Amino acid sequence: MRLFLLGIKHSGKSTFSRLLASKYGVPSVDSDDLVLERIKPSRIREYYAEYGKSKFQEIEYEAVRDYLEKHASTSFVFSLGGGVSDNAPLLKLLKENGTLIYLYRSESDILSVILKHGIPGFLDPRNIEESFHKIFKERDAIYKSVADKVITLGPYRDRMETLEYIDENLTEYVDAR
Fold first, then answer.
1. Scanning 83, 107, 109, 117, which has its CA 20 to 30 A from the CA of 72?
2. Please, what is the angle between helix 88-97 and helix 128-146, to 10°?
3. Which among 70, 71, 38, 29 is positioned nearest to 56, based on CA atoms?
């Protein structure tokens, strides 16, 4: 079982990767953690701002590739950064090495969470809603086109209920438990 959780920033990838991995008794891996082991400065936003998108995507690809090579026969639940949609070589690598699960949440749900946590650098602070709408539409289309399974999440209130819902939607991809 090798599950890759895809989704837009704040869709629940990291949270549910950890919870599912614990439930299944397998490692939880976060691509951001793998990237952070390789970069200076040791903050993704700062690195991205200093070196740019292409260099970041190269590091992201190499970090995930190296992990997959080192753990070729390992089951896991893997959380990916929200911008992996823009990294075509990485998406191809993921597709060849496991099952891609898109945790879909509505544009309005995600935007409300993003605004609670501070405006990320990829949004235009002069027109947050419009810039987010554009990114959401682009990434949503890519994730839907590459995912083996799309799981639609509402504005969840209870993590454990949401975990059970996700788990129920993964039965065809998860080894017998």
1. 83
2. 40
3. 38
Residue 101: its H or E element: strand 99-105
Cα–Cα distance, 131 to 163 (Å, whole number): 30
Q: Is 111 exposed, middle or buried (0-12, 13-18, 19+ CB in 10 A)?
A: buried
Which pLDDT belongs to residue 177? 46
Q: How far apart are CA 20 and CA 16, in angstroms?
A: 6
- Nearest C-alpha neighbor of 113 from the set 5, 7, 28, 10: 10
| Amino acid of residue 81 | G
Residue 80 binned pLDDT confidence (cut-offs 50, 70, 90): very high
Non-local (6+) Cβ contacts of 30 within 8 A are 14, 17, 78, 79
Instruction: Identify the structural domains of the chain with CATH numbers, from first to last.
Output: 2-167 (3.40.50.300)
* Prediction pTM value: 0.91
